[in-house]
Design goal:
With 246 residues, the protein is α/β, with parallel strands linked by helices. The chain has nine helices and seven strands, in the order βαβαβαβαβααβαααβ. The protein has one domain: 3-Layer(aba) Sandwich (Rossmann fold), CATH 3.40.50.720. The chain is 49% helix and 15% strand. Bound molecules: 1,4-dihydronicotinamide adenine dinucleotide.
Length: 246
């Protein structure tokens, strides 16, 4: 098992990519904190994994709220005793063309997708520095790397996540903490279920592999960066997108 004895916080793990990661991390021996805004779903998913014998617990959090994040991190430390891995996976979309995008929806996406990554990393940092080791994995997006129509807010946040990742990789590398990002392409989750079928067909034509990815494709990338397999990888953005970026 590749994460034996490790403790991981995965934000946004009640659903989609984060849930797939929670399952894979737990199977690889990690104790997993499912940290999500959605209490009902998060509790249910954590219970399902715990019923299968995994060490998984739910922690309610709004990643955009500093008090909420600090409380979540304290509760995880009280429950599991340490934090080895943080996957900053929680994210939202509020798409609109620039002309119609409101400041409220611009700010909301920045608050969750960018400030949330800052707040969660800031909160786990003291314990990682104290133990002299850690892995931070930030979720960017293909939209943040090459832009996407209707996603001014989302692309801005996801591009900023890449810059923050590189900065932290430089700041924290000598402290034993690796920081990397994963930039998923188009993956089959609730987020892409909201995209009209016609648009999805057009997208598929631009993907060299010809189809959308599965949540486990991203979860396996998180696993690689969280495990010893990825121990010399630092400051990179791993593109898991079927080749759409070429
Ligand atoms: P999803 O919508 O299926 O799940 C997101 C989870 O985040 C939900 O459980 C939700 O409750 C939680 N969440 C939302 N706001 C939160 C907050 N303020 N605090 C705590 N939790 C919150 O999304 P999906 O598709 O699994 O996406 C996961 C990550 O991957 C996101 O960062 C997304 O931007 C990114 N991504 C997804 C792609 C896709 O094709 N699905 C493509 C590229 C990036």
């Amino acid at each position: 098992m590749r994460l034996s004895g490790k403790v991981a916080i995965i934000t946004g793990a009640a659903n989609g990519l984060g849930l797939a990661a929670a399952e894979i991390f737990a199977k690889e021996g990690a104790s997993v904190a499912i940290a999500d805004f959605n209490e009902e779903l998060g509790q249910a998913r954590a219970q399902e994994l715990a019923d299968r014998g995994h060490r998984v617990a739910f922690f309610q959090v709004n990643v955009a709220d500093q008090n909420s994040v600090n409380t979540m991190v304290k509760n995880v430390l009280d429950t599991f005793g340490k934090i080895d891995i943080l996957v900053n996976n929680a994210g939202i979309t509020r798409d609109a063309m620039l002309k119609k995008m409101t400041l409220e929806n611009f700010q909301k996406v920045i608050d969750v997708n960018l400030t949330g990554v800052f707040l969660c990393t800031h909160a786990v940092l003291p314990s990682m520095l104290e133990q002299g080791s850690g892995r931070i994995i930030n979720t960017s997006s293909v939209s943040g790397v090459y832009g996407n129509i209707g996603q001014t807010n989302y692309a801005a946040a996801k591009a900023a996540v890449v810059g923050m990742t590189k900065t932290w990789a430089k700041e924290l590398g000598r402290k034993g903490i690796n920081v990397n990002a994963v930039a998923p392409g188009f993956i089959e989750t609730n987020m892409t279920a909201a995209v009209p079928e016609k648009v999805l067909d057009t997208i598929k034509q631009t993907i060299p592999l010809g189809h959308l990815g599965k949540p486990e494709d991203i979860a396996n990338a998180y696993l690689y960066l969280a495990s010893d397999d990825g121990k010399y990888v630092n400051g990179t953005t791993l593109h898991v997108d079927g080749g759409i970026m070429m």
